[in-house]
Amino acid sequence: MSLDEHRASTREKLIRMANQIATFFHSKPRVEGVEGVAEHINKFWEPRMRRHLFEIIDAGGDGLDELVLAAAPGIRRPAEAA
Questions:
Q1: DSSP state of 72
Q2: Are 74 and 35 contacting, i.e. CB atoms less than 8 angstroms apart?
Q3: Are 2 and 45 in contact (CB under 8 A)?
Q4: Quick one: which of 80, 33, 19, 21 has its CA closest to 55?
Q5: Nearest CA-CA partner of 62 in 49, 53, 71
Q6: Please, are residues 75 and 50 in contact by the beta-carbon 8 Å criterion?
Q7: Are 62 and 18 in contact (CB under 8 A)?
Q8: Disulfide: which of 7, 48, 54, 65 matches 22 by Cβ 3.0-4.6 Å?
Q9: pLDDT tens track for 12-30
């Protein structure tokens, strides 16, 4: 697998995971859903995963559920990789 293929695969997995979290929280009232997505990602995603998520968001968020995008301001943005 080339580096580009690996990056695409990682991107697809992160989008799928984030969207699965959002799918669960769509059953909650809007504010609770937005906060729930952010809280879940902050608690369970390591900084590297959150960094990749923000790369996707910063590039326009294509493929991400709108609830993930709404939760983005509440997700801790990790420091840039060294």
A1: G
A2: yes
A3: no
A4: 80
A5: 53
A6: yes
A7: no
A8: 65
A9: 999 999 999 999 999 999 9
